[in-house]
Specification:
Layout lengths: L1 H11 L4 H11 L4 H13 L2 H15 L6 H22 L3 H10 L7 H10 L4 H33 L1
Helix pairs in contact: 1-2, 1-3, 2-3, 2-8, 3-8, 4-5, 4-7, 5-6, 5-7, 6-7, 6-8, 7-8
Length: 157
C-alpha cells in the first residue's frame, strides 16, 4: 500500500512526474496495470489547478523579492514551451501538446505542457484531454523502457 502512495506522490512532482514513478513501480515489483493507473491519476491531479491558477500566481509573484526569480523562471519556461508548441504545430496545436507531454524528455510533461497551454489561452477541456493522452503515452513509453531496461539488467546479473 505504501508503494502505491509513493508512486502517486512521485507522479505529482514537477519535472519527474510519472517518468520516475513508473520505473519505480516496476522496480518495486508492483502490478503494472494498477501502478500505471495510479501514476496517471497522480500526474493528472494537479493539471486543472495548474491550468486555472498557475499563470495568475506566477504573474503575481514575478516581482516579489524572495520568490520573484523562481516565478519569472517558471513563466519564461512556460512561454518558451508555448512558443515552441505554437511554432511547430500551427493548426495542430492540441496534437503538438499531446506529443510535448507524451514524449518523456527533460523539461516536458504535464506540468510544463499545462502551463504552456494556459499561457497560450488554449481551450481548457481540449488542453486537459491532450495532456491526459500525453500522460498516457508517456506512461506507456516509460513502462516499456523500464521493463526492457530492468529485464536487460536482470539478465546481466
Amino acid at each position: 500500500m505504501i508503494h502505491y502512495l509513493i508512486i502517486f506522490f512521485i507522479s505529482m512532482v514537477p519535472l519527474i512526474e510519472l517518468r520516475v514513478a513508473v520505473p519505480y513501480a516496476i522496480a518495486m515489483g508492483l502490478p503494472v496495470l494498477p501502478s500505471y493507473i495510479i501514476c496517471i491519476l497522480g500526474n493528472m491531479l494537479p493539471v486543472p489547478i495548474i491550468f486555472l491558477f498557475a499563470r495568475k500566481v506566477l504573474e503575481w509573484g514575478a516581482d516579489k523579492p524572495v520568490i520573484g526569480k523562481f516565478f519569472t523562471f517558471c513563466l519564461e519556461k512556460g512561454h518558451k514551451g508555448g512558443a515552441k508548441l505554437q511554432e511547430k504545430a500551427g493548426r495542430g496545436l492540441y496534437a503538438a501538446l499531446l506529443l510535448f507531454v507524451g514524449i518523456p524528455l527533460p523539461g516536458t510533461g504535464a506540468w510544463t505542457g499545462t502551463l504552456a497551454a494556459s499561457l497560450l489561452d488554449m481551450d481548457f477541456k481540449k488542453s486537459v484531454a491532450a495532456v491526459l493522452m500525453g500522460v498516457i503515452l508517456a506512461g506507456v513509453i516509460m513502462g516499456l523502457a523500464s521493463a526492457g531496461l530492468l529485464g536487460a539488467l536482470g539478465s546481466l546479473f
